[in-house]
Amino acid sequence: MLELLSSHACHGGQQRFYRHESKTIGLPMQFSVYLPPHAQHGRVPALFYLAGLTSTEETFPIKAGAQRFAARLGMALISPDTSPRGANIEGDAENWDFGVGAGFYVDATREPWSNHYKMYSYVRDELRETVLAELPIDGSRLSICGHSMGGHGALVLALRNPGLYRSVSAFAPISAPMRCPWGQKAFSGYLGDDRDAWRQYDASELVGRPGSTRFEDGILIDQGVADKFRVEQLHPDVFEAACLSAGQPLTLRRHEGYDHGYYFIETFIEDHIAHHARALSLAFA
To answer: What is the pLDDT of residues 173-213, one digit of tens each?
Structure first.
């Protein structure tokens, strides 16, 4: 059962924050939902947004400015927290890039993380099933987007689950986590040394793999050229090359002067909403 923490009038709809007891995580989890005005009259399509390292369920609705576009289209926006909270695992809050706020959207297999850190299954299954059961969301029209660590999560969830999401996009995603320090730290900590397990969570390894989703209308990625993490951590060129090899249409836009933060996201969020609106059969009024 959902516990409504707060609700705020926003562009004719409601920005809400919820808590629920998660069976997947084994702890309470929080998430945000923007319901457009159209939700008062029936079910609406939804865009899931996965945030990056250190973020929470509040980051996207507060900073991105997406509600005004979602309100016009009749699109719900759903954003979960980025990790379990309150697991009380020794050392889980010592590093900003591993543990609390950094679940990396994987299902951990290494103890003690495997007891609670199951963000992949939480987003794919429990969160989706919960909002479909409790809120006016159309489960046949879902898309997914994310930023940085969340961009990694969005790409992996979309590629690994054909038919679940109609479209995918990302801002500055960790595109090849097996090749970067953030990804190597997270994967070794959560998954151990099995690099075959790592490949299941690496978008550059997944794209074009037999059984992976193919997005005929393309994947959209925006990347700031002034992003200090671009070269060492994000590797957009690796994903671009993988898509080219696989024949997966990709629009990778590089923007001079833009960094890794939410001023960048706020600048281009309308384009991402429009990208998903086309896939969800919506049109701007």
So the answer is: 999 999 999 999 999 999 999 999 999 999 999 998 999 99
What is the DSSP code string of the chain? Answer: --EEEEEEEETTEEEEEEEEE-TTTSSEEEEEEEE-GGGGTS-EEEEEEE--TT--TTHHHHHS--HHHHHHHT-EEEEE-SS-SS---TTTTSBTTBBTTB-TT-B--STTGGGT-BHHHIIIIIIHHHHHHHS-EEEEEEEEEEETHHHHHHHHHHHHSTTT-S-EEEES----GGGSHHHHHHHHHHHTT-HHHHHTT-HHHHTTSTT----TT-EEEEEETT-TTIIIII-HHHHHHHHHHHT--EEEEEETT--SSHHHHHHHHHHHHHHHHHHTT----
What's at 150, amino acid-wise? G
Distance from C-alpha of 157 to C-alpha of 19, rounded to nearest angstrom: 23
Residue 282's pLDDT band, with cuts at 50, 70 and 90, is confident
Q: What is the mean pLDDT of the chain?
A: 97
Question: DSSP states of 240-270 as a string?
Answer: HHHHHHHT--EEEEEETT--SSHHHHHHHHH
Catalytic residue numbers?
148, 227, 260
Residue 221, pLDDT > 60, answer: yes
Give me the pLDDT at residue 13, please.
Answer: 98
Confirm whether pTM is higher than 0.70.
yes
